[in-house]
Structures are given as structure tokens and as C-alpha cells.
Amino acid sequence: MIAEPDGPEDRLRRFATIWSRAVFPVTSTSSTRPEFEEQLLPLARRLSEALLARAFDADEGRAVGAALVDAHCTDPEALSRTLDCVDAYLVLYCGGDGDQEGLRARSARLQHAMAAGFAQALRERTLAEQEAIAQAALQAQGVVAQALHATEARFRAVFEGAAIGIGMADLDGNILQVNGALLRMFGVSEQTMRGRNVMEWTHPDDAPQTWRLYDELVRGEREHYHLEKAFYRPDGTVLWTNLTVSLLRDADGSPQYQLALMEDTTERRLLNLRLRYEATHDALTGLPNRTFFFERLEKALGAGKGQRFGLCYLDLDGFKTVNDSLGHAAGDRLLVEVADRLQSCATAPGEMVARLGGDEFVALTTGPDTQREVDELATRIMNALLAPISVDGRELTVRGSIGIVEGPAGERSPAEVLRSADITMYRAKSAGGNRFELADPEADARAITRHGLTTALPTALERGEFFIEYQPLVHLGDGSVRGAEALVRWLHPQHGVLGPDRFIPLAEHTGLIVPLGRWVLEQSVRQAREWRELHGGVGAVGPLRINVNLSPCQLTHPGLVQDTVDILERTGVEPDALCLEVTESALIGANDDLLKPLRRLAEMGVDIALDDFGTGYSNLANLRRLPVSVLKLDRSFTQSMQQFPADPVDLKIVEGIVSLAHSLDLAVTVEGVETGAQAEQLRLLGCDTAQGWYYARPGPPERLHELALADATG
Predict the structure, then answer these.
(1) Interval 282-318: pLDDT, tens
(2) What is the three-class DSSP state of 550?
(3) Which helix (H) or strand (E) holds 459?
(4) Which of 60, 63, 188, 176 is nearest to 117 (CA)?
(5) Which uninterrupted H or E stretch holds 419?
(6) What are the residue boundaries of the PAS domain, all occurrences included (predicted)?
(7) Residue 467: which of 506, 508, 509, 499 has the closest Cα?
(8) Mean pLDDT across the chain
(9) Is 441 left (phi over 0), alpha (psi -120 to 50) or beta?
(10) Residue 382 pLDDT level (bands cut at 50, 70, 90)
(11) Could you say which DSSP state residue 200 is in?
(12) Can you state the angle between helices 33-52 and 8-23, rounded to 10 degrees?
């Protein structure tokens, strides 16, 4: 296949060329530079494919790192130059037009995988070399006692030519012989090394079993052992090694010498530490990241009896506004300053601060008295955010909401603790922000239940779990049933029947209120048609009317008018059989665009009711411009009328509202009527219709039909 000019294959070739030029000078190979480039080209292609693959595969990166060792790129500088080249040019030449930020993140992960693969392959190669040397040494141990001269030349060649350090000592630990590689590793002369004893090489980082294994070996109880060990060089620097010590026996099988093989792993250890740091720390702020935090939290929660933990979960208030108005670079500088301030708040033993991502941070404290300490930590954090932060010449005020979880270790998992802290933080944010709240198990349970209901809402409508109950609207003048309000219910499989206050706000938040409202409207209108067909000409009050609630989200939906028209036409119901109820708060300050759908429906003959009137502090003069024909008076104005005598102030308020409504040609409906005295008082005040438990609780459509039929027949 012939590649297009400057096509993917050309760009891949350029990347391989740059890579080969960077690495070739530090490569132990007999190939020419162009030949070496041809070796790297398939590796470059594997990196390109891994970069653009649908799912990230770390094995590809590890395989490429291992292939470098096979290509004789064993010098640590070869790995360093490779990682620099991949970091600078892989996305540039092989990334195409994809998400650059995502590709760079994947490139970083590939680099980590390459380094891991390189280190593993180099380790396996070295261990294989060590094994070969050890075998040669073991084969020679009998000759040391019987025929040393027969194998001396071969052993000397292996001993002196090996790339790893080799030393021999007697069973008392006195060093007898060392090779040049070991002398170079320690930076000393052979004379200096031979004057030392193995027991002098202790180090504070020695593993607990180091000297126990050594004692077992010189006593002849084991043949060899392998571990990682650190040594001090004469200049005070630390040499890290992979150390293998084997026991050499004489012809009779008695222990005679000990043979040590040392691989210098200092550079590899530093590389691993760097990679570990990058994997566990946030690149922007330098704070521990989510991975490191979960390790610490898991350790804190697994502490012994009597230990406690305290966690502060911080989310900045209004951070999105900073990003949107000043840009992400300014937002990053703000996060760096916040991180520095938080770091200064957690300096005591057992305290740490981490960044989980975005503008979310956590602070952890551990010990026996975290009940007091976590409150003090949260206070320090809030105080640290008081001073404005200067970004690009602007003084930005930063506030935060904190959720606090505190308790004994061993009772909850890290995921449960973080979930509780997250829920509590959002509770603090909902309360206005710039504050901290303590976790409340009951509030957590409600939030978890609320989340469960939210996730179950979409399928609940498909499964037919919703149903409608109807509460009659009664004319106060003659007591006849004039219609009903449709009230949706959810028959939940676990929680039973749920009222609208449990799920309507969730449906509003998720947008499901639009299809749910459309379903309620259609079912209610169909029910109105059935009532009209059943009643026919019975009674003189006319056919029954249905009231359906409209949420603010439905009010702004562009399909409201057309959906209503389609439902009325499909069911064959006249518009005057329908009344749509809109809360007063939804219409406060409403502009003409918001009112336009309601005006169109009102012009068609659909009644519009202003629900919960009196709770929204609306300007009464605005009633003239609203396309409403009914005021539904909030029950708070009439509760005092359940007792005798009624509150005279409430009587005057209701009387004034009724007078105003009638002067604007509006009917008045009262909610929450529960006693006969209340109903009579409202009738005397001139209210038109009422609903409440005094007449009937919400129920199935058959009950309303029975009530209406009883009124019509006397």
C-alpha cells in the first residue's frame, strides 16, 4: 500500500526516525542507525495503535518497553530518552484529530506501562544472567577443594567479565575476592573491599529477615537466598541492589564459602519511585490523588480498636463560574492556591489533604480523638479560604462546602465513608454553601433512597407503575360535584405507594416530568371523556371537568400546546373539559414568551388555574395580564376557619381576595377544606368551589362517579 503524502504512515515514519535518532547513541547494538530505525518502526506502530484504540491496553505499552530491552536498549538513558520522545511526539504525529487532552492522558499511561515493561524485562534478563553465573559458580565449588586449577580459567573469565557484582567471603563474613563490577558499584579499591566484613553492611532499610537468612545460610541450613538490600557507599550515598547469596560446599558437602551476586538497581528504584509518585499525586497541585487517598483511608479504617478517623469532603462553591468567565487556566491557578492553603491546614501527625478531582478536595485525620480534631480541621479549612485569591490581577473570593464524616475505625468501607461525606457536602451546599455539616445517617439514607428513586423513574413509566387518583371539586353553593383534580401516584415495587411530593421534584430534575406529565394529561382527559359519557344529561350542573397540574418544566417545553391539542383531538374531548393548574411561583415575573403557550390554550377554551395563590408574593396587579380564569387559594389562608370563631384577619384577607378575583372575572377554588364549619364560612365569603377531605380523599375514578351520580339524583 502506498501512503498518501503526509498521511498516517508518513507521520508514523517521522516519529520512528525521531525516536531512533534520540536513542541510537546510547544503544549497544551492531546495527546502523537506519537499521535500528527499522527495528523501532513496528514498535512505533504498536504505540500508535494503542494510543488510538477504543479501550486502553497497558499490555501494549509493557510489550514495547520489553522489546526495547530485546533491541539492546538496556542503558537507563535509553529508557529516559524514549519516554521523553513519546511524551513530546507520539500525540503530535500519531494522534490525528482526536481529543488532544484525552490522548495526552493516554500517552502518559502508555509511558508508565513502557517503563514498567522495560524494568521487568531488564530484571528478567539480569536474573537469567545471575542464574547462569550462579550455576557456573556451583559447578566450580567442588573444584575449589579438589581441582581448582582445572576450572580456574573459566571461572575467572565469568567472574571478571560479568556485568553484575560478584564477591566471595568465608563463613565468618571476611571478604576474600570481588570482581571489578562490584568495585565500581561501591566506588572503592579492591584492597579497601578485602579489608571489610559482611556484617558491617547493615542499613536502616534492611528487611527484618535479612540477617536471619544470612545466619541460616552460613550455618548450612539453606543453600541460597534472594532479597533487595541497600548499602552505604563511602561517600554516604545509598546503593540499592538485588542481592543473591549462595552457599558453596566442599567435596564432603560441608559449608565452605558464601558467594554474593549483586545487581545495581539504584536507577531503576529511582525511576519506580518517580512513576509511583506520578501515579499517586495530582499533576496540577502536587497533592496526593484519589488513588493515594483511598490507600490511606483504607489503612485508617483498618486500624486497631480504639482508633477513629475524621474526614472533610470539600467542594468549592461557584468554581464553574470561574472557569466559564476567566478560563480554565485561571481556574487551574486558583486550584493550586487553594491546594497550598489546604496543605497548610493539615500538618499534624495523622493528617493529610488530597485532591479527588476537579474542585473536590478531602482532608483526613486519624487518632483516638478525631471527634474534636475533625471539627478543628474543618474550621481551619474554612478560615484558610477567607482571604481573597489573586488570579490574573483579579481578587477572587473563594468559598467552600464541607461534609464531615467521623467515627470509629473498622465499621465502614472507604466507599461508604466517601459516599456519606459526598452526600453531607451536598447537604451543606444546598443549605447555602460556605459552611460545613456533620454526616447524619438518616439524611444519608434519605439521599440514597432519593437516588434509587431517581434511577428507577425512567423504567417505572415504561412498566406502568404510575396511576392516578382523583379528588372531587365541589360547588360551595349547591354542594354538587363539578369535577376533580388528577393526582399521580407511584406504586413502587419496594416502597409501596408514593405521593407526588416524593418523586415529582426528582422527575423535574431529570427531565422525566415532560413524558410523565404528558401521560398524566392523556389519562386524565380520557377519564373526563368517560365521565361525560356516563353522566350524559343527568343533573343540571353540566359535565364533569378535569384539573391537571403543570410543572414549571412542562410550562417551558416547546411541545406543550401541540401535545395538549393532540390529546384533546385524539380523545374527542372539548377544551372546556380541561383545566390546567400552574403554581403561582412558576408565573412570578413571567415574560410574554413564557405566557404565550398558556394564552394559546386559554384562547382554545382550556381553563388555566393559578395554584397555591398567596404563597408567591406576586403583585396582584399582575393578575390582569395572566391568562388565568381560576384562582386556587392556598390552604394556609383558611386553616383557621376549621375552628370557631375563625381568625378575623384571615376572614378579611380571604374576603378581599375573593372580591378582587370576582372583579377580574376569576373563579375562586379553596384547597384543604376539612370541616363543615370551614366549608360554610367559605361559602358565605363567596368562594366558588372547594376540595378537601371534608368532601372526599383522593381515590379511584369510580368513587367520583358515584359521588357525582348521588348529587345528580338527589
Answers:
(1) 989 999 999 999 999 999 988 777 789 999 999 999 8
(2) strand
(3) helix 441-462
(4) 63
(5) helix 414-430
(6) 151-221
(7) 499
(8) 85
(9) alpha
(10) very high
(11) G
(12) 130
Residue whose entry in the numeric block shows the C-alpha cell 519511585: 273
State how beta strands 689-690 and 466-475 pair: antiparallel
Cα–Cα distance, 64 to 75 (Å, whole number): 16
Which string of DSSP letters, residue by residue, matches 570-592?
A: HHT--GGGEEEEEEHHHHTT--H
Model pLDDT, residue 556: 87
Tell me the whole-structure pTM to 2 decimals: 0.52
Using CA atoms, how far residue 105 sits from 51, 100, 477, 630, in Å, is 10, 9, 74, 60
- Peptide bond between residue 645 and the one before it cis (omega within 30 degrees of 0): yes
Q: What is the DSSP letter of 198?
A: G
Query: Whole-angstrom Cα distance, residue 176 to residue 182?
Result: 13
For residue 662, what is its C-alpha cell?
370576582
What's the pLDDT score for residue 144?
A: 47
**Whole-number pLDDT of residue 541:** 45
Burial bucket for residue 235 (CB in 10 Å: 0-12, 13-18, 19+): exposed
DSSP character string of 624-676? GGS--SEEEE-GGGTGGGGSSSPPHHHHHHHHHHHHHHHHTT-EEEE----SH
* Interacting residues of 548 by C-beta distance below 8 A, sequence separation 6+: 485, 486, 520, 521, 524, 525, 578, 579, 580, 581
- Give yes or no for residue 259 having a pLDDT over 70: yes
- Mean predicted confidence (pLDDT) in 441-453: 74
Task: Judge contact between 429 and 317, C-beta under 8 A.
Answer: yes
What would the mean pLDDT of 572-587 be, rounded to a whole number?
88
Cβ contacts of 333-341, under 8 Å, gap ≥ 24: 333/391, 333/392, 334/389, 334/391, 334/396, 334/398, 335/284, 335/285, 335/359, 336/284, 336/285, 337/389, 337/391, 338/385, 338/389, 338/398, 339/282, 339/284, 339/285, 339/286, 339/287, 340/285, 341/384, 341/385
